[in-house]
Batch of 2 targets.
Target 1
Amino acid sequence: MRTVTWQSLSEEQQAAVLQRPAIAEGANITAAVSAVVDSVKKDGDKALLELTEKFDGVRPNSIRVSNEDIDAASERLSEEMKAALNQAYKNIAKFHQAQKPVPLKVETQPGVVCEQVTRPINTVGLYIPGGSAPLPSTVLMLGVPAQIAGCNKVVLCSPPPIADEILYVAKLCNIDEVYNLGGGQAIAAMAYGTDTVAKVDKIFGPGNAYVTEAKRQVSNDFRGAGIDMPAGPSEVLVIADETADADFIAADLLSQAEHGPDSQVVLVTPSVLIADQVTDAVQRQLQQLSRKDIAQQALASSLIIIAESVTQAIAISNYYGPEHLIVQTKNPRELVPLLDNAGSIFLGDWSPESVGDYASGTNHVLPTYGYTRTYSSLGLADFSKRMTVQELSADGLRILAPTVVTMADAEGLDAHKRAVTIRIEKLQSAE
Amino acid sequence: MRTVTWQSLSEEQQAAVLQRPAIAEGANITAAVSAVVDSVKKDGDKALLELTEKFDGVRPNSIRVSNEDIDAASERLSEEMKAALNQAYKNIAKFHQAQKPVPLKVETQPGVVCEQVTRPINTVGLYIPGGSAPLPSTVLMLGVPAQIAGCNKVVLCSPPPIADEILYVAKLCNIDEVYNLGGGQAIAAMAYGTDTVAKVDKIFGPGNAYVTEAKRQVSNDFRGAGIDMPAGPSEVLVIADETADADFIAADLLSQAEHGPDSQVVLVTPSVLIADQVTDAVQRQLQQLSRKDIAQQALASSLIIIAESVTQAIAISNYYGPEHLIVQTKNPRELVPLLDNAGSIFLGDWSPESVGDYASGTNHVLPTYGYTRTYSSLGLADFSKRMTVQELSADGLRILAPTVVTMADAEGLDAHKRAVTIRIEKLQSAE
């Protein structure tokens, strides 16, 4: 880990230090994904089976996973695993249930009633990546809010073979259909539909560069599907003062670093002592990790910043806008009003990032790559849309008419004005 | 207006009838906008002045409008106009004020506290198109929620010369900086910043094909800026039964048609009589409009659909997903629970679309082009982002630890597990 002293840097150097590495874009990824998407649009299920054989090396008996297979998964799991998944489900459901919007109704002027109503997005598709280990936690993070929002149809794609843990959670979340599909072909299938795969309105979930590019492509086509948010490598920033425990900080930095070689890991502290202790603790703990090689690569580009004060550390964090922000200071709760541009914030010694990754209740799908400035932590709102409703009484229209008429005149929109005056005239003639 | 009977159409024909016309994309627009964006990124203010002279035919004294000029605008406006704008401001503020989120705090398990906090987006840019008449209503629809959300810095771009009505409303909404800028150059300036123009986090507002393309380009660049929503031509769908007033319906259809030749106008009714009456009334009222030519072009592609019942009319509307949905039936209020995929809904005889366009309180920036399935009516939420916060006590971590450890094991994430166990071990050794 590289250590820099913030005050010793010029403004340009400061910006450069916090600059995220560019995401490899590659025209070849764009073209490869575009070919996959076209092929799914053209040949439907046939293309899906061929692409799955090509990319995942298996040809599943059927694209859709049968209910029998889903039930069987549950029988193979240990009771301990099911209890853990059930507990996580319960906590996540509790926190997302609390996000249910209150209906809003306002009488802005007498007889002018304006409302905001929230409706679930009808059909949603969840993407769960494959890889070296299954990710049942991501199924929970997407499946629970979809269920609580009340989406009519929820489908899930994951590359085969799909792990028992994923199928078990899919059932917990009452997911309607599960498909043996990964990569760009899964995204294309959900965006456009095939004979077997349901077309969805919006697609959620993480993935590799191909999945990310496929999501970008289908979301740029109005016949395709919406997506949750832009994706980037996972990242953590820790703000710590001299009261923090260096072992805890090191463990938190490493739990981010093991995600992937491109993980971003930053510690900002006014304490040189803590900086030194953490550097040592990271090296010590690293030796014991099964994913040591991955973590080591991530650490190569990671950073310790010596700030002048906790206040300056906060300013640095707000500028960087981390996905995960861990605050290990004397009174972390007091700092919350000052914290901005973070996906999820973890306060104090006993709130490691991994509790939020799995089971505390908050969502682990968060904006990365500086998108925390404008995007939100995934929540119920992302599985819903807000519509407004208005109803005026005849008197309400009478009261509002002069305002509308004057403004329509200013904007030169004659018919807008007439839609009001024709009604007022009819009211007057009825009097 | 073309009239079709829904039941006489095949499923394919039904889909074709409701298909929106493709938006002209044109590689030449993409390239032209890309050149403008690059030039602003490279040459900053110098490029802005040159591009403004080229595209708007004027070279303003300065890019930024002075406070003196803004104050002077107010003096030139009639009292009647100011009163109308003030009233609209008041209603819109009241409705958006009511959207302020309640802070959310949940203890999911003893000692495990999860929160959701909402923060304003720091800096936002509002784009107000030029054209034949000024659009102060759009300034209200963007400026009021930005102000109420508490955005730190709000800037506005509009092509010069900027109308007095726009400057007056900019002042009402306490907008920080107003720039004499239109088109792709305005979007590029706000996305990347120049010596004069503040870089913003997110850009809002309507515009022509060039503005839309510029918004798309800067939102696809993580160094650029976020945007409000994808844009398409404005549209209305009216559901009416035999109790509706054909003159009112015709007036509403025409007020949509006058927006532009590409406006989408649809009436769905189970009453053949109403369909005939509306056809006549549209022709009659059309003759009296100042924007008759524009409305006539829009009407050429507009549609009356004869449905079997109001229930079927609702299904058609939900499938189409209109930006504006007007319901003129016997008991419109009773139908609300059945209505879905609409930007804003207008109930009954006395709620023409133009009240919502201007002054009732709801926002007139709405998803179009079928994006109502996944996007929301613009509101306070679009000027804010949600972050989650969590704080566990030592006991809370003890209770949650087995769940996290089991799940981290299943996902093969060793360091995630160790971030928990290292803390539990320290707690145990302190006992």
Target 2
Amino acid sequence: MTDDAPHDENARHAEKMKKIKAARDRMMATKTEEKGLIIVHTGPGKGKSSSGFGMILRCIAHGMPCAVVQFIKGNWITGEAEMIRTRFADECRFFVSGEGFTWETQDKQRDIAAAQRGWEIAKAQIRDPEIRFVLLDEINIALRYDYLDIDEVVDFLLHEKPAMTHVCLTGRNAKPELIEAADLVTEMTLIKHPFREGVKAQKGVEF
Amino acid sequence: MTDDAPHDENARHAEKMKKIKAARDRMMATKTEEKGLIIVHTGPGKGKSSSGFGMILRCIAHGMPCAVVQFIKGNWITGEAEMIRTRFADECRFFVSGEGFTWETQDKQRDIAAAQRGWEIAKAQIRDPEIRFVLLDEINIALRYDYLDIDEVVDFLLHEKPAMTHVCLTGRNAKPELIEAADLVTEMTLIKHPFREGVKAQKGVEF
């Protein structure tokens, strides 16, 4: 009976999906540990900061107090930073360290001092037992230029971070020491970018 | 005079940064076009949906009305979805299409019908001249299983999307036709994931 054909296909599909679900459920049942993660978003593609801020949004939604420290990007007022500052001040602490990318300030000593101030704030936020998630936005740029000592940062994250606190570090060119220490690392790879076609940075997309 | 050494280094740094800034300013001056972008977040790494929601946060901050259509992921209540629904209902429209990943429903015809309903909603939101940014979260999964016709979706984005509206499509395994049509494509690459070490999905990080 040809009328059975779609029915048969549905039955086969259901059977296949049932097996996938069973395998997935078995796999997920082995994942029982909870711990505070060291999360790194790096690579030349987009989404490193915006997915960090997406996680902040998740934490706020779940009632988890959180903190953001923005390194380097200081004078670039992004929409999400403004949003956190104006609408979520009670749920997420917000700090800015630095005054724009280093080619904007043209003053290395000032950049180093700003990065160091940012790191002191970061340590205090991470140590605070109230805070469950800390976003260190663009800290990889400060680490890359050695404005912060990578060994000190990694040592702090591994040995002084409270066990259940998540810390997310963003920015291009994450140092190998940080990647080695991290639990969850994502590289954002650029496949296509409209700058190449002469399109400028636009609201909502780039900032 | 040895005391001049740090001063000299500062001067060299300032000179170098001045040149970088000038080159960057010249480059950015050539980027003058504004247009609504077709944005794709794909790849097996994290951050595809969360950076899409980060962009939504940016749009809300800039006063740009926006819309989210969630495909497939229906019964997985994420923090950011809950946040948009409860706190930003006036600024961002929110729609759910589907009832969970396909291995949860085990019913292909129901999944196809849900994907089609989601696409009808998506088209209406994209066509709406009030809406400046539309996030089609996890639509790539529906496209991958051919629950939606890739040619129809690409044709609509290229020829019926209003010129200034941004559309962001997320999910693994983006089809080549979509990547070809897109303006801005980022692949999230998995470098390290804590599931491998037995750590379960956690609030704020995974959902």
